[in-house]
Amino acid sequence: MSITEILIISLIKIVLVLGITLITVAYLVYFERKIAAWAQNRIGPNRVGWQGILQPFADVFKLLLKEDIVPERANKIVHAIAPMIALFVAFTTYAVIPIGPNVNIFGYDISLVVADVNMGILYVLALTSLGVYAITFAGWSSGSKYSLLGGIRSSAQMISYEISMGFSIGGVLLLAESLRPIDIVNSQAGLWNAIVQPIGFITFVVSAFAETNRLPFDLPEAEPELVGGFHTEYSSMKFAGFFLAEYANMIIASAMIVTLYLGGWHLPFEQSLGLSGTWLIVAQIASFFVKMGAMLFFFIWVRWSIPRFRYDQLMNLGWKVMFPLSLINIIWVAVIIMLTN
After folding, report:
1. Residue 12 confidence (pLDDT)
2. Are 316 and 164 in contact, with CB atoms under 8 Å apart?
3. Which domain range does residue 181 map to?
4. What is the 3-state secondary structure (H, E, C) of the chain?
5. Model confidence at 203: pLDDT above 90
6. Are 245 and 83 in contact (CB under 8 A)?
7. Residues 99-124: pLDDT tens digits?
8. Is residue 222 part of a domain?
9. Closest CA to 181 of 101, 251, 116, 257
10. Which residue, 128, 184, 301, 321, is most buried by CB atoms nearer than 10 A?
């Protein structure tokens, strides 16, 4: 393919990923409210559109019309930049997540990933590490003690759980012998990593909850004690930026769990299904999204089932439980590799 054709195909991929992500985020908020209502024996959104299905558009319209209030004591430049950083980190991470095998469209062999890079996993880890700056900047720049406490909590929390997350991924990389997401998915064609290294899978999932600031690890917000945490002094579309970034991070966390541990686009018992050609590719792409949807449901389900941890419990879990378990997982995988080789 010529450079022009490559650029056009890449641009189409970017537009599709952004469009699908924005729609998914909007309706993920709707489904969270519906699942919360189901868990608490309520009805949930049911006024705007059939079964409340237009509620996400009403929410966006409301936030657009709200006044953008900036505290007098705030650092106005940093206050405005913080939600932009959160959105940048959330949406650029999708670039390296493959949703299916290569497909042939109009004679072009196209990979179903925006950027197929060899260091894809390092790219994801580097970008997600930048997310803490958005929350810290938001807390510090607001000029509020509650916001500042939320930002400081987030820094300590993310540093603690990123270590466990990194070591959990280490076991996956040892088995796949590659940092390329497509190679990691292909290495699970026979047996998923969640089965081979269940400890790594569990530690990664728990770390993902902490990284996305979801209950029971939403200590940076903790509205009973911090009013609203790091985004207490935000309103209108700046607040919506943090809200959007949180749900976008949930999607990327679910996609990473599927890619690293649940076989990516590979179907269970794929060889015995007898599918081939186009039907196999369609089934594989659908398999990826079904797995990701199941993980998103799990994120929401846990939020409305488990109460928030105390801060000392959060740190003890990170350093005294998650960190040692992730090290044990790497040793376990290394022993498996030594025995099988």
Report:
1. 87
2. no
3. 70-340
4. CCHHHHHHHHHHHHHHHHHHHHHHHHHHHHHHHHHHHHHCCCCCCCCCCHHHCCHHHHHHHHHHHCCCCCCCCCCHHHHHHHHHHHHHHHHHHHHHCCCCCCEEECCEEECCCCCCCCCHHHHHHHHHHHHHHHHHHHHHHCCCHHHHHHHHHHHHHHHHHHHHHHHHHHHHHHHHCCCCHHHHHHCCCCCCHHHHCHHHHHHHHHHHHHHCCCCCCCCCCCHHHHCCHHHCCCCHHHHHHHHHHHHHHHHHHHHHHHHHHCCCCCCCCHHHHCCCHHHHHHHHHHHHHHHHHHHHHHHHHHHCCCCCCCHHHHHHHHHHHHHHHHHHHHHHHHHHHHHHC
5. yes
6. yes
7. 888 887 777 778 888 888 888 899 99
8. yes
9. 116
10. 184
Inter-residue contact 171 to 197 (CB < 8 Å): yes
Distance, CA of 133 to CA of 130 (rounded, Å) = 6
Distance CA 131, CA 122 (A): 15
Distance between alpha carbon 111 and the CA centroid of its chain, in Å?
A: 22
Across the chain, which distance is largest between two alpha carbons, in Å? 66
pLDDT confidence of 1, banded at 50, 70, 90?
low
Rg (CA), the chain: 21
**C-beta of residue 218 within 8 angstroms of C-beta of residue 288:** no
Q: Which of 119, 115, 151, 149 is nearest to 133 (CA)?
A: 151
17 contacts 113 by C-beta, under 8 angstroms: no
Q: What is the pLDDT of residue 231?
A: 83
Mean local confidence (pLDDT), 314-341: 89
Length of the chain: 341
Distance of CA 325 to the CA centre of its chain: 22
- Count of domains forming the chain: 1
Q: The tokens of 266 are what?
A: 């590979």
216 in Cβ contact with 302 (< 8 Å): yes
Q: Tell me if 130 is assigned to some domain.
A: yes
Q: For residue 36, is it within any domain?
A: no
| Sequence-ordered list of residues with C-beta below 8 angstroms from that of 45, at least 6 positions apart, any chain | 30, 33, 34, 37, 51, 52, 55
Residue 50 lies in a domain: no
233-253 burial, b if ≥16 CB within 10 A, otherwise e? bbeeebbbbbbbbbbbbbbbb
Give me the residue label for tokens 């959990």.
168
